[in-house]
Design a protein that fits this description.
- The protein is mainly beta.
- Helix content is 2%, strand content 46%.
- A 4-stranded antiparallel beta sheet has the order 1-2-3-4, with no helix packed on it. It has a 4-stranded antiparallel beta sheet with strand order 5-6-7-8, with no helix packed on it. A 4-stranded antiparallel beta sheet has the order 9-10-11-12, with no helix packed on it.
- It is elongated.
- The termini are far apart.
- It comes from Actinidia chinensis var. chinensis (Chinese soft-hair kiwi).
- This is FKBP12-associated protein.
Length: 258
């Protein structure tokens, strides 16, 4: 064991490369914060962040030297903890997301809210909104999202038709989009046409396995592509093999391969 932290007032911790943020119980009009070195627990900075007294804290997130603070019905605050420079983003532009993913390579972050994904920078500017990337789950199940190691692509389980928010029993699609441009680059989806050698995912999934009339067989279990694209609960992309793995609520794993 390298060290331990014992403080009954610590409410939450956040981890960034090399540092750890301790968030303490909210005090009157502020929240006490400490930034520690992950290596040895040395306290690098101690400070208080001012809060509106009667507003609940929606989130406090840390990204390197940037601190993101949002209170209920208030603007987003982006604080640089090195010089305490503060930026604000209007609450009308930035609504509280259900999840974040930080892109350390690109100095950006993703927000997820109501099935939509957006990309922001730390000046509080919207960088990207996606043209065809409506997530299947409204609460952002990040098990169904994969970001490539270069942080240039996002692969997600999405609605096959962005305009269709109806039955949960329909087959979804696996969408591949460029994070910086928002363009949809590829899509694996079930089709209703007769079996052909055509593929509806722009050739990225291997070509001949993307038609709903065709069947996948493994270990004696047969699934149509439409069945394989229903109720996906986990998604992973093997970047070396260029294969997408999906698991569904029936306990089946499917591999989408070139």
């Amino acid at each position: 064991m390298l060290y331990s932290i014992s403080d009954k007032n610590v409410q939450e911790i956040k981890i960034s490369p090399g540092i750890m943020l301790l968030i303490f119980d909210k005090a009157s009009g502020h929240v006490p914060l400490k930034i520690l070195s992950i290596e040895d627990g040395t306290v690098l900075k101690t400070f208080n962040h001012l809060l509106h007294r009667n507003k609940k804290v929606d989130f406090i997130e840390q990204f390197n030297e940037k601190l993101l603070v949002k209170q209920e019905n208030e603007n987003l605050q982006i604080l640089d903890v090195r010089n305490y420079e503060l930026r604000e983003v209007s609450k009308a532009e930035f609504m509280t997301p259900s999840a974040f993913i930080f892109l350390y390579e690109n100095q950006l972050f993703l927000t997820f809210r109501n099935r939509t994904v957006a990309v922001w920078n730390f000046r509080g500017e919207l960088v990207t909104s996606f043209e065809d990337h409506l997530l299947w789950h409204p609460d952002c199940n990040t098990n169904n999202i994969y970001i490539t190691s270069d942080q240039d692509l996002i692969i997600s389980y999405c609605r096959a038709d962005s305009d269709d928010l109806s039955s949960e029993g329909n087959a979804g699609s696996i969408n591949v989009s460029n994070i910086l441009t928002g363009k949809c680059l590829a899509k694996i989806r079930a089709t209703t046409s007769s079996p052909t050698d055509e593929c509806s995912c722009s050739g990225r999934c291997g070509g001949k396995s993307c038609n709903s009339k065709k069947r996948i067989q493994a270990s004696g279990i047969r699934s149509t592509v439409a069945e394989a694209l229903e109720d996906i609960t986990a998604l992973f992309y093997d970047e070396e093999r260029n294969e997408i793995y999906t698991g569904n609520r029936h306990g089946l794993v499917h591999v989408w391969s070139n």
